[in-house]
């Protein structure tokens, strides 16, 4: 087992079973899918589109992920099939890159199925590689080996390397495809000259032998199957309830819903089963949106935090993004954590991009560092502020019923993405009744931005960033009357006690309280580096 | 970069940076510590004791984990320093083994610090190995290499292998120790003839340069540091609140608290900074404990579910164990998930050992499979039952105030563990005022179990397993009067509507409602295989 390195010391080895171990950080399939999309979006690939589908290959359902990004050389493909190799962590790339760990393809693909083929074209070379647990098991491999076969893209002939012929034989014998023609058919199915197609088979099944993803209920979506009454009944040996699952946010059971908010500002269009995923800006579904600013003392960044009321009050908390990518959804903070007494903060959604934190292995959580805890603490206080402000405001205006209505939403601009240049443009709210599925700069009602060559509209710069509302309740009140610790307690009883005190000074002079925000809610400090960089 | 395997096909490679990537599945340090304890407890090692400490080595704080288990051969140590090699998944071992992924040491140690040395003695051989990010960075390694140096345990002389001398040189040059004498001093500090000591240095620090673990506040504990008012204030540029963190369960910030409930029935005694961690049975802190039975239709197992009321009502939900090891704490189910209306299920804690589910990468979650969702659904219904029963019972007895008092607790036996044989024995509740810190079978008031040679007391077998209470509210009611979906709604308004309906038949004839449970609350179906197996 012991292989020596050039240093004369043995290498750490990797058992084929580690492929499964490594994939178990994805508790569900959607975060695994997200890894593959991240890879297509990230710098170095920068696909304009990615197509996600379920297809039939030799009678087996397969998942396919096809993008028109820049493709890979055989060497780069080997890195993708290895562990921890990423160039994303350094240089300019890091400004945009979501990937940091060099593990997304392995953990993601092996979570979705036992076996994967990767077809990639980079203009000159087209290469197929295989990461397959079934293959490694069949040949009783002691370590993870990865067949890689390059072909000339022009002549389609095999490029002979030290292991290309053995690799080709392995793929034809042990994968779901058995002829060279099939390999080339997959290359040809990538719609552009460059790009990558991932084919995953032996997709994961539940103990009842059904695929873990439900492809039938909605033929334009990947869904988690509903839990059936009958199954629960068996577990209970008597009558059960069909309502085993509460009213949970749709992003937990619909891939389309999850992908629609996966990126604050998507740079790659996702086409799921033939239908484009429409990017939904979370903040656009909220009423009474306001923004606040968070400046962590351990970071140079100033970050915008958007708050609003969700029409569906059951789903509330902070949507935490990292480098444009959703990490945590509906994270409860501040008064939302209170388990006793009157419910406070229910229905409030916050949105923030936390580039100053580190995501965990599966990008579904942050590392639980002191910085993370400080951030949650600060977000809690800000959410309390917002809750106090918005409920007082609504009480004053005797508009409590408006909690259940969308308000203001129509006053903010609608954001659409150009299909050609992938820039985001704002159009007046009433210009379209719904976000158009297909749109390009040439349709822009605003002539200034009616061309793909116009730069993206500037978002609020870091210097301008300031809260959108005055926090009147803080100004009206007597400073330092009460202990600061009151903050969390008081937000429970907003109407009953009008004179809680928190001293706080704002750098910006009074702006109208609770006016609609001026800029798109997804803008945030640190976004400037991204503007205009799409598709590069 | 490409190394060929014996199959003539290139190996997947592992970058040194993957050591960090792989560790990021542990969002915090406590779950990383737990991995190292799991390893010491698991079959093949079966340590009776593990000592966890923070020490000073050459001026640097180091974490040490020392056990008196069976130690390792150089070959086994190499597997431990490799990825995915575990023998725990198969044969008889799997009945008891917590480890399944062959990744615990790597993910755990590299989460706690950048570098680790492992000293291990197996009776004949004593071996030191190194897994060090600093070393790999220093020598600009392209792959993870792991110096391993075996010595004769008798003569203390180096065993010459193909890489032992180069490995020794690497350790003395690049680790925190620089002489062979220091190596042998570490071997000697392992208190028995066999055993393993892990030394971790360059332990993780926050951005403020303080160690992520607070060693000062409590010198007998590892704690997560408190968030200071000042830090939050800076983040908010004005007055903040010290109450940034809510009343969270102590297991989230005190390692001692976490370790006290990490195992349902600990087989290895943990000594943290010189003081033994007293195993707390979660159920013993509850009042009104009852048990129910869950039989998943996808599994052969019948599993006991214990419910009770937590004196601290803020902490509630299901404690989910897997093979004796805590995976999820305070997971909300059933009516506890309701976000609107009257609070139901608050204060109810449930305890279950879910060996039929699969833990995720970091053992802090389960894979989100259909089986998992079915289990949560069924637990929700059972918790609703319990809540209805207990609140009705308390209403009848006009004892609502007893929600805040411990009740029944003294009637169930106290469980103590013998220091010699590690068997668990029950003693009458009033025999000791508190769990004795040091206890052996010879002190047992019950002569039948006054010797280490007596087998462990039998727990309820699977066949006997039945709910401990009658679920009166189900019997009194008219079957099929209402839709089954009512289950979750009705638990909100228990007092107001006395006649909800759920049909359900129980195999066991009437037992007294809400009597104290007969058996220890941590017993569960599937536990039999473990009885008597400790320390083997």
Q: What are the low-pLDDT stretches of chain A, counting only 5+ consecutive residues below 50?
A: 237-246, 406-410, 477-536
Query: Tally of extended strands of chain A?
Result: 15
Question: Structural class from helices and strands of chain A?
Answer: alpha+beta
Range of helix content of chain A:
10-25%
State the major sheet of chain A.
8 strands, mixed
State the oligomer: homodimer
Distance between the termini of chain A: 44 Å
Q: Tell me which protein chains meet in the greatest interface and how many residues each side has.
A: A-B, 122 and 124 residues
Written as H for each helix and E for each strand, in order along the chain, the element string of chain A is HHEEHHHEEHEHHEHHEEEEEEEHEEHH
Give the strand line-up of the largest sheet of chain A: 5-4-3-6-2-1-7-8
Kindly provide the radius of gyration of chain A, computed on alpha-carbon positions and rounded to a whole number of angstroms: 26 Å
Shape of chain A: globular
Overall description:
Chains A, B: It comes from Betta splendens (Siamese fighting fish). Two copies of one chain form a homodimer. Chain A has 13 helices and 15 strands. The longest helix of chain A is centred in the C-terminal third of the chain and has 27 residues, at 370-396. The first copy, chain A, is α+β, with helices and mostly antiparallel strands. Chain A has helices at 18-23, 29-41, 74-80, 93-96, 104-112, 133-138, 164-174, 180-189, 229-236, 255-260, 370-396, 472-476, 486-490; strands spanning 49-57, 60-67, 113-122, 125-132, 148-152, 194-203, 269-272, 275-276, 287-294, 303-309, 317-322, 325-331, 348-353, 414-417, 424-427. In chain A, 22% of the residues lie in helices and 18% in strands. Chain A is globular, with a radius of gyration of 26 Å. In chain A, the strands form three sheets. Chain A has an eight-stranded mixed β-sheet with strand order 5-4-3-6-2-1-7-8, with helices on both faces. A five-stranded mixed β-sheet of chain A has the order 9-10-13-11-12, covered by helices on one side. A two-stranded antiparallel sheet of chain A has the order 14-15. The two termini of chain A are 44 Å apart. At the A-B interface, helix 1, helix 3, helix 7, helix 9 and helix 11 of A face helix 1, helix 3, helix 7, helix 9 and helix 11 of B.
């Amino acid at each position: 087992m012991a292989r020596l390195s050039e240093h004369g010391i043995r290498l750490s080895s990797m058992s084929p079973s580690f492929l499964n171990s490594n994939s178990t950080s994805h508790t569900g399939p959607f975060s695994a899918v997200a890894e593959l999309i991240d890879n297509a979006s990230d710098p170095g690939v920068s696909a304009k589109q990615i197509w996600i589908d379920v297809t039939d290959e030799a009678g087996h359902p397969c998942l396919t992920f096809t993008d028109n990004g820049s493709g890979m050389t055989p060497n780069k493909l080997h890195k993708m099939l290895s562990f921890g190799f990423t160039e994303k962590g350094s240089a300019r790339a890091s400004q945009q890159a979501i990937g940091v760990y060099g593990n997304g393809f392995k953990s993601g693909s092996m979570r979705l199925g036992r076996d994967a083929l990767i077809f990639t074209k980079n203009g000159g070379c087209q290469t197929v590689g295989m990461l397959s647990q079934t293959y490694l098991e069949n040949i009783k491999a002691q370590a993870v080996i990865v067949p890689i076969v390059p072909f000339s893209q022009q002549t389609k002939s095999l490029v002979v390397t030290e292991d290309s012929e053995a690799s080709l034989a392995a793929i034809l014998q042990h994968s779901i495809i058995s002829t060279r023609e099939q390999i080339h058919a997959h290359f040809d199915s990538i719609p552009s000259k460059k790009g990558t197609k991932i084919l995953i088979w032996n997709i994961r099944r539940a103990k009842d032998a059904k695929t873990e993803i439900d492809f039938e209920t909605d033929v334009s979506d990947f869904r988690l199957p509903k839990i059936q009454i009958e199954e629960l009944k068996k577990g209970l040996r008597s009558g059960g309830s069909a309502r085993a699952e509460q009213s949970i946010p749709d992003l937990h059971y619909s891939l389309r819903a999850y992908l629609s908010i996966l990126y604050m500002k998507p740079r790659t269009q996702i086409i799921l089963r033939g239908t484009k995923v429409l990017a939904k800006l979370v903040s656009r579904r909220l009423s009474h949106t306001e923004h606040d600013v968070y400046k962590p003392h351990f970071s140079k960044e100033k970050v915008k935090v958007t708050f609003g009321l969700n029409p569906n009050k059951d789903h509330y908390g902070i949507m935490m993004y990292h480098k444009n990518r959703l990490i945590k959804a509906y994270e409860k903070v501040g008064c939302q954590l209170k388990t006793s007494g009157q419910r406070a903060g229910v229905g409030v959604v916050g949105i923030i991009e936390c580039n100053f934190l580190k995501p965990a292995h599966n990008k579904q959580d942050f590392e639980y560092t002191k910085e993370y805890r400080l951030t949650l603490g600060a977000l809690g206080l800000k959410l309390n502020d917002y809750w106090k402000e918005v409920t007082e405001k609504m009480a004053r205006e005797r508009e409590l019923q408006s909690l259940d209505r969308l308000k203001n939403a129509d006053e903010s601009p609608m954001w659409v993405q150009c299909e050609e240049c992938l820039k985001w443009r704002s159009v007046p709210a009433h210009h379209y009744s719904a976000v158009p599925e297909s749109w390009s700069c040439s349709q822009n009602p605003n002539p200034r931005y009616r061309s793909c060559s116009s730069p993206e509209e500037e978002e609020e710069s870091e210097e301008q960033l300031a809260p959108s509302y005055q926090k009147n309740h803080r100004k009206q009140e007597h400073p330092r009357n009460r202990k600061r610790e009151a903050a969390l307690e008081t937000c429970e009883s907003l109407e009953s006690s009008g004179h809680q005190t928190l001293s706080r000074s704002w750098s910006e002079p009074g702006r109208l309280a609770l006016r609609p925000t001026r800029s798109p809610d997804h803008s945030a400090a640190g976004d400037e580096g991204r503007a205009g960089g799409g598709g590069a």
